[in-house]
Amino acid sequence: MFKKDCLTKRSWMAGSYTPQDTVTTSSSVYAVKFDEEKVVCGMQDSHIRVYDRKTSKLTLTLSGHRDWVGAVQYDDEKV
């Protein structure tokens, strides 16, 4: 449900939805935060994934958590 919510919010905020906008991953999204440039997702697989909001491309994967990521926070300089 969270994964679908992240995808829906991103497409909705962009003003359009097409099947190409969907991001496929084998892990569920547990947290999401976004701004005009990026979508940051906390994942069940203990990663944080950062997507470019305009292209929907994965731009960064952060690892190191021992368990699922239930919240994400960032500022202009760091995730």
SSE layout and pairing:
Layout: H1 2-14, E1 29-34, E2 38-43, E3 48-52, E4 58-62
Antiparallel strand pairs: 1-2, 2-3, 3-4
Summarize the structure.
The protein is built from 1 helix and 4 strands.
Radius of gyration: 12 Å
Tally of extended strands? Answer: 4
Q: What kind of sheet is the major sheet?
A: 4 strands, antiparallel
Count of DSSP-assigned helices: 1
Main sheet strand line-up:
1-2-3-4
Nearest-integer average pLDDT: 81
What is the helix fraction of residues, given as a range? 10-25%
Ranges with pLDDT <50 over ≥5 residues?
Answer: none
**Which structural category fits the helices and strands?**
alpha+beta
Order of helices and strands: HEEEE
Terminal Cα separation, in Å? 24 Å
Beta-strand percent range: 25-35%
Shape, please? globular
Structure keywords:
79 residues, alpha+beta, four-stranded antiparallel β-sheet, 1 helix, globular, 16% helix
Tell me what the structure shows.
- There is one protein chain.
- By secondary structure, the protein is α+β, with helices and mostly antiparallel strands.
- The chain is built from one helix and four strands.
- It has one helix at 2-14; strands spanning 29-34, 38-43, 48-52, 58-62.
- The chain has a four-stranded antiparallel beta sheet, covered by helices on one side.
- Strand 2 and strand 3 (48-52) form a beta hairpin.
- The longest helix has 13 residues, at 2-14.
- It is globular.
- The model has no long low-confidence stretch (mean pLDDT 81).
